[in-house]
Amino acid sequence: MNHLRYSGLPFEEQRAAFLDIIAADPLVRQALARARTFALPDWLVVSGALYNSVWNYLTGKPSGYGIKDVDLFYFDESDLSYEAEDAIIRRAAKHFEGLPVPVEVRNQARVHLWYPQKFGQPCPRYTSSSQSVSFFASKTHAVGVRFDADGQLELVAPFGLDDMFSFRITPNRVMDNQRTHEAKGKRAEANWPEISVVPW
C-alpha cells in the first residue's frame, strides 16, 4: 500500500481524493451529517478528525484510530458572552450523543477574548470560521469541511493539501505557536510513524 500515492498531485486531484476519503469515513460522515442538522451559523468541521482520517485510510488503519474528538467551529458575533457559547456546547452534547468521540464546539467570534489568557499572546479578531483555520500552528492541520447550500461538501484548505498527503507536518509561523506545532507533531508521529515533522 503506497501511503504517498496522492503526494505531489495537482490540487484538484488531491481535493477530489480528500473529499472521497472523508465522505467514506464512518466517523466523519456521521459527524458532518449531524453538524448539518445542528445548523450553526458559518459552521465548519475542522482539523484532526479530517487529516487523521486521511492518514488512517492511507495507512490501512481503522476509522477513528488516533482521533480524540471532532472539532466543530461556528461563527456568531451576535452574542460574545461565555454563557451563549456554553449554551450551544451543552445543546451540542445532546445533539452529538452516540458518536464514538466527543464533539468540541467553539465560537470563532470569541477566540480573541480567551486566547491571550490561555496562550500568553494576542490573537486576531477573526471574521469567519474559515479565517481562523489559517492561524493553526501547522499548515498541514488547516483543513475544514462543511456542506454547502446544495448539500455538496465544501473544502476550506488555505495552504492546500500536499502537506497532508505527503505525511509532512509543516509549521505555520503566522503566530508564535511553536509549542503546539511540536506537541501535535510528536503525537502524530506516535500514531503514524510515516509522519515527518518540519522543525519550527
Question: Which geometry do the CA atoms define?
Answer: globular
The count of helical stretches stands at 8
Helical fraction: 40-55%
- The helix-and-strand class reads alpha/beta
Portion in strands: 5-15%
Write the H/E string, N to C. Answer: HHEHEHEHHEEHEHE
Q: Which stretches are poorly predicted, pLDDT < 50 over at least 5 residues?
A: none
Number of domains: 1
Number of distinct beta strands = 7
Q: How would you sum up this structure, described in words?
A:
It is a single chain. The protein is built from 8 helices and 7 strands. It has 200 residues and is of the alpha/beta class. It has one domain. A 5-stranded mixed sheet has the order 3-2-1-4-5. It has a two-stranded parallel ribbon with strand order 6-7. Strand 2, helix 4 and strand 3 form a beta-alpha-beta unit. The mean pLDDT is 96.
